[in-house]
Amino acid sequence: MKKYIKDILKLILFLALGLFFVWLSVKDLDDNQRAMIWTNIYNVFLDKRWIFLLLCMLIGILSVWFRAFRSILMIKPLGYQVSKMNSYHAIMICYLANLAFPRLGEVLRCTVLQTHEKVPFQKSLGTVVAERIIDVLICGIMFVIALCCEYDKLMQIFVENHSMEKIMVFLSSKGKYVLIAVLFVIALIIYLLRNKIKDIPFVKKIKSVVLGFWEGLISVKNVQNPIAFVVHSLGIWVCYYLMFYVGSFAFPEFSALGNQALLASLTCVVIGSVGFIVAQGGLGAYPLLISLVLSLYGLAPEYGLAIGWVIWTTENAMYLILGLLSLVVVSLKKRKH
User: Fold this and answer.
1) Tens digit of pLDDT for each residue in 236-284?
2) In this structure, is the dihedral angle defined by the CA atoms of residues 19, 97, 317 and 287, taken in order, positive or negative?
3) Distance of CA 213 to CAs 126, 128, 299, 301, Å?
């Protein structure tokens, strides 16, 4: 009973955080700007610009197939051959469940594979952890590329808040010696008390998480077809990039960026990914971050928020519809005992 209460409270917290980001994104806009957001969204469906959103969905489905194929490659070294359709349905159900409860999707994904492919839950969960680590690494590489290509624009986020300026002033003065001294003292204390620190429950938890990540990461070496694994992993993120790039062309303001739209899309995909971490399903946070990034390219907040909300709604509508369809199909399938 306590577990259900904890899950409900967690859901309420994530939803409340999402609603907070919704409020944060519109609180500084006047009535005309807020009305313009709805106008921009409505105009997408007045002509054939909705075709771009349909293409966005098709690319999203392709990304799920890439993930399904990669999942098969990860599970095969464990001695199990998973069918392509069951792998696809498991991932679609994962996306659907994550719209409702944080991390519930990973549990249901492994449950589907255990029920219909006889893959032990713990083993499939280990591959999911490894996949997540690979995705984080690829996202990190994309962030570095975006930072190298759009350094000046990304630094504006810090400059406008004077955060980077204060840090540079601090480090250029005697502050850097203070920082080095503090780090040295902390390192010395940790070294002297290392035997006691390692017995602290929180430290044990951190250590187990780090070791789990490492074990999941090195499990990739057992993949029998590493080239296919790399291709599918990159294919997932190329699809994420194209989903945003193609979908955003439903807005003339975005297409007017010309060649800048290529780099703007890369930056939005990387920064926008953070929105799905800090809020349930990216609610509120994703459009806010997209608006923040696109403002660096000269787009007004009402245009950036409209683009963010339309892309977010398109992706989640796809996961909702196809996830429900996969749930029905899997429910009707004969289970493997």
Assistant:
1) 999 999 999 999 999 888 888 888 999 999 999 999 888 888 777 788 8
2) positive
3) 9, 11, 39, 38
Distance CA 225, CA 232 (A): 11
- Long-range CB contacts (within 8 A, 24+) of 35-40: 36/302, 36/303, 36/306, 37/302, 37/305, 37/306, 37/309, 40/251, 40/253, 40/302, 40/303, 40/306, 40/307
Q: Do 276 and 282 form a contact (C-beta atoms < 8 A)?
A: yes
Question: Around Cβ 117, how many Cβ atoms within 10 Å?
Answer: 19
pLDDT of residue 170: 52
| pTM of the predicted structure, to 2 decimals | 0.79
Dihedral in degrees, nearest 10, Cα atoms 22, 23, 28, 30? 90
Whole-Å CA distances, 275 to 29, 96, 192: 21, 17, 40
